[in-house]
Model the fold of this input.
Amino acid sequence: MHFHILTLFPEMMMQGLSTSITGRAMDKGIIDIEATNIRDFTKEKHGHVDDYPYGGGAGMVMQAEPIYLAHQHVVEGIEQRRALCNEQENEELSEKKKTPRVIYMTPQGRVFNQEIAQELAKEEDLIFLCGHYEGIDERVLDMIVTDNISIGDYVLTGGELPAMVVIDAVSRLVPGVLNNDVSAEFESFHDNLLEYPQYTRPEEFMGRKVPEVLLSGHHKNIEAWRLEKSIERTKERRPDLYEKYCKDHNK
Ligand code: ADE
Done:
């Protein structure tokens, strides 16, 4: 899986994503993440990428041209890589020829969730566009963006942190990124249930004991206990999800 990011802060993104699990997945070549600096594509002699908004108002707007050119550069790179792969593998071009989705991180987008993460994890390439200042010239958004995604109903200073959130959530669904593939499936939000509580050694911590059933070795009972705890927890903490769970299970 190949992630491409269009940003004014490539170092911030690469530093964050090069650590921990996503970093290890990059080292192993399971995913790759490339951040392209939009500023490298401005023709303005002082390196400016923003200007005053037409019609007046506060703040600055990111200009269309550097973003358009940065996107074009990334798409050309993807096409070259795909052509090389297809040559080597003597493979049909059909599916791979698809132009990659461009995700604009914006509070005006579809609110991100696990279902969207699963949908995005099926793509071979994803391009993320991170905005700053008061926004981006609408014309380039109309030209290149395929998806608008928000990470919640609050406003951040830029799209970098939201893009990192989405890349992290999508990466861990790519086969081989987590140590065991089962864990991505059986955890919070699978089947609209939150995850059951977990315990590790010691058996007793400051007078608090690990639930007896987990020490029993009786797998059926453990499974039943975990499901019960998941349901209990979802009902209490996320009644909205619990309602969906009940609907799906005709309860
Ligand atoms: N950019 C600024 N705020 C955002 C948000 N909540 N989600 C996605 N992108 C954003």
